[in-house]
Specification:
single chain; alpha/beta; seven-stranded mixed β-sheet; elongated; disordered N terminus
Length: about 350
């Protein structure tokens, strides 16, 4: 008898907790949970028509501070405005909102859940709050319209698939505090084709296929060699090269199957957006390939040559500024390079 009574009491208590989540409260277009012990409201669903959605600041005289979900696959939503007090965005919260073009993520948000904005294909720009320390797995997976992303400086971990298949991204800046880059984190970001990537010095681990199918032309490592998974740079551009700072440890040739070189700039990034040869000849001039080959296969193989390369890139910005100021100097430089390039090409001895 005592056992039956105890079972009843436990079942009754369980039913009370179950009822609070099974029968969600409603306010306008939103369903919600009232978390009275925290004096917070968590949004759990949305039943509106879409368009520009404004999440209320207060419901039931209680501040709205969390979004557990409820917007997944709501393709008619075009924008989301959240209250400043929001501190958490749950897993898959806005996944599949293909019509979503803009969203404000309030500065108080500390946690963004797994796949929270995945397949939001119309998003073009997202600013992540500075207090976020981790990009969760799949957060922006498949956001093909995303062209720019600001990863905060406090982020230490970029999760698996975090930006995978963001084909519109044309550049990425990995902050200096990042220590781990997950499996396939940037896989398939084809907009990065023919660009270079800088890997911060604190990175100790890069996961499988992390930058595969990105078409990168180079990766510059700022510190010692990290532990790398399988096929990290699979399907990069022909001639893809890994650069490291002289004195760094752990780099052997080839490095995971790719050629390596001491950074010609003495830094863990290329100099400027254009080198002077590109500035003078034009970015798409085929003669640039001859000059690159001369740099990599000849100059880089001698102490004097490497010094010449370092001086060239160290002063690239000032040379570019001079070329910009003087069209006559740029024209003369172009003519000289057009004569020299065929002479130093890989087929010329």
């Amino acid at each position: 008898m005592r056992f039956r009574k105890l079972t009843f009491i436990v079942s009754f208590i369980g039913l009370m907790f179950l009822s609070s989540s099974a029968f969600a409260l409603q306010s306008g277009d939103f369903t919600y949970d009232l978390l009275s012990w925290q004096n917070e409201v968590a949004i759990t669903g949305y039943t509106g028509a879409g368009g520009a959605v404004v999440i209320p600041t207060i419901i039931d005289n209680t501040p709205v501070k969390m979004i557990f979900g409820g917007f997944q696959d709501k393709t008619s939503i075009t924008s989301i405005t959240m209250p400043d007090a929001i501190r958490l965005i749950g897993d898959h919260a806005f996944s599949g909102c293909t019509g979503l073009t803009s969203i404000n993520i309030p500065g108080n948000v500390t946690n963004i859940g797994d796949y929270a904005f995945s397949f939001c294909t119309s998003l073009t720009n997202v600013s992540i709050p500075s207090i976020v320390t981790e990009i969760s797995p799949g957060t922006f997976f498949g956001c093909t319209g995303l062209t720019n992303i600001n990863i905060p400086g406090n982020v230490t971990n970029i999760g698996d698939y975090a930006f995978s298949s963001c084909t519109g991204l044309t550049s990425i800046n990995i902050p200096g505090n990042v220590t781990n880059i997950g499996d396939r984190a940037f896989e398939g970001c084809r907009g990065l084709s023919n660009t270079s990537l800088s890997i911060p010095s604190k990175v100790v681990s890069i996961g499988d296929f992390a930058f595969s199918s990105c078409g990168l032309i180079a990766a510059y490592f700022c510190g010692n060699a990290p532990t790398m998974g399988e096929n990290v740079f699979l399907y990069c551009a022909t001639g893809f090269t890994i650069y490291y700072i002289d004195g760094s440890i752990g780099f052997t040739s080839p490095f995971y199957g790719f050629p390596i070189m001491v950074s010609p700039t003495g830094k863990c990034k290329p100099a400027g957006s254009l080198c002077p040869a590109q500035k003078a000849l034009g970015e798409d001039n085929p003669k640039l390939e001859n000059l690159r080959d001369f740099r990599d296969s000849r100059l880089a193989n001698s102490v004097v040559g490497r010094k010449v390369i370092q001086i060239y890139y160290t002063n690239a910005d000032s040379i570019n500024a001079a070329l910009e100021r003087s069209p006559a100097l740029r024209a003369v430089t172009r003519r000289v390079l057009e004569v020299i390039a065929p002479m130093v090409g890989k087929n010329e001895e």
